[in-house]
Amino acid sequence: MTHRTLAALLLVAIAASAQAQTPKEQFDAETKRVATRYADDKKLCGDEQDSGRRMQCLRDSKGEYDKAMTQARAQYKAGPSRAGTCHECGKVTQVSVNEKAGESSALGLIAGGVAGAVLGNQVGSGHGRQLATVAGAAGGAYAGKKIEEKAKSSKQWTVHVQYDDGKQASYTFDHDPKMLSGDRVQKANGSIVRH
């Protein structure tokens, strides 16, 4: 499914929830949004290469789904909330996921250098062997550094918000904030929470 198709579906869901008059209609719109989010999360989990991580991702997604459904049911049972002004409220305009490069340490550099030197020492004889050893150490150190950076990399979520007063801000999370474009949010303790 393309980003445009997802955006169109989200706009339809937002429009439907904005027109909802009754608590039942609001509940239906929220459960549809939660189900869509759960389906998207399961697709992301399917991309995970490691089976253990994939299963943990699926368990976490199911837990978040259950939590969101419980919250939606509780709000439905509580009835309509009082309308009031919300200070520092806004709407999520975009959520992006990026790969954050990990930091390397001397361990990767040294281990790669030693491995490269050992392999380089296996090539040639005399001065050629010495040059191959030095070149292998340098190449191995660089490779060790890059391997360690990749192994320590992590995902980073950036949520862009348009506040009701016209201001814009971005917030970075090291875990999935479970927010979608169109979600209402409120600033809280230097971050944002769903409103």
From TrEMBL:
Signal sequence region: 1-20
- State the compartments where it is located: Membrane
Task: Please identify the protein, giving its name as recorded.
Answer: Glycine zipper 2TM domain-containing protein
The Glycine zipper 2TM domain covers which part of the protein?
107-148
Query: Which Gene Ontology cellular-component terms appear in the entry?
Result: outer membrane
Q: Does the keyword Signal apply?
A: yes
Instruction: Report the Pfam families cross-referenced here.
Output: Rick_17kDa_Anti (PF05433)
The entry's keywords: Membrane, Signal
Q: Does the keyword Signal apply?
A: yes
Q: Where is this region: Disordered?
A: 174-195
